[in-house]
Amino acid sequence: MEKLVAAQARRLAEQERALTVLSRPDLGQLSGAGVGATSPQEKALVQVEPASPGAQRNEPARVGQAPPEREAVEVAALPERQGVLTPRGQFVLEPSVDYTHASTNRLVFRGVEIVTGVQIGVIEASDADRNGVGASLTGRYGLSDRLEVQLTVPYVRRADRLTTLAQRDETISRTLSLKGSGLGDVELGARYQINRARPGRPVFIGALRVKGDTGTSPFEIDRDEFGVARRLATGSGFWAVEPGLTFLYPTDPIVIFGGVSYLYHVPEDIDRTIGEVLVGKVDPGDAIGVNAGFGFAINPKFSFSLGYRHNYILPTKSQINGTGQKSESLQVGVFTFGWSLRLSDKMTISNGYEFGATSDAPDVRVVLRAPYRF
């Protein structure tokens, strides 16, 4: 009898251990290496627990029954530089096309208003429509499971139409159309995953981006005798360095993201006469950026994201004819939306949108990307 009781006790202990293993929570974890990209359609891998027939009927798991297999779902519609890293030894080639439209309408009165509607002075109005189409080729390579490098080579094509109206003794209207195309500013970047993915904890990723001055500078384009540009620049004309920190917090089937960054422009001595103006040292305004949002996986192939990004651009300081000048600061805020469709294990099509939320932001930006993994 004692042997029979001992055998039953051992069987009960084994059943309890099996039930403990089956009931362990294991949802919403990031993959250790991740599958990501530094683009508006970067990827975060989360684990989704599919419903089993027994779970739908609220039936308890049977002792000894294997846990159901989990299907990996990619939240691939995250904004630029927000995804986890490219796995070690893997190369991603990403062609992309983007379109940007911005418009401004300004009315300036220089003079004195005697009473409402009776003005003595000059009225100037301007209307500007700016359109830009860009194509870029980006390559990313995973040096390790926690470090990736990236190179982006852009091509820029711009077209602006500006109309000015000045009222003095007579009304003078002038319309100017400008175009410009060519190589943009090449970028080199690196991203490092600071901590390992653990259930219930965010993943932090540090980034460093360096932008060159390979595009045509605004100070290098052709101008007439009055200093008016004949065509548009394709680059900023300055080197820039941008460190940043982002985080990903998976909570199945959503990935919450956010980040901060600081863009530093390297000042330069232009020392060039444009029209009748001598341009000396120019220090472009740096930019402080923040962003936040979430990505949602509808199914294993389709996902979307919603977010907001804001940049505070500090004033630009410049020397004009030996006198220091300082511009106004800018507030550039945009709402972001993106979706992504996985066509195969190697190829994904992604579409991102940005809508201006402040007066200094472009009206709209549309980006189409097609990353391919080797």
Q: How does this model look, in words?
A:
The chain is mainly beta. It has one domain: Porin (Beta Barrel). It is 7% helix and 58% strand. The protein is built from two helices and 20 strands. The chain has helices at residues 2-22, 53-56; strands spanning 42-48, 71-78, 91-115, 118-144, 147-167, 171-183, 187-193, 203-211, 240-251, 254-265, 268-274, 277-283, 287-297, 302-313, 317-320, 323-326, 330-342, 348-356, 364-369, 372-373. The protein has a twelve-stranded antiparallel barrel with strand order 3-4-5-7-8-9-10-13-14-17-18-19. Strands 11-12-15-16 form a four-stranded antiparallel β-sheet, with no helix packed on it. Strands 1-2 form a two-stranded antiparallel sheet. The longest helix is centred in the N-terminal third of the chain and has 21 residues, at 2-22. It is elongated, with a radius of gyration of 28 Å. Residues 17-74 and 111-121 have low confidence and may be disordered.
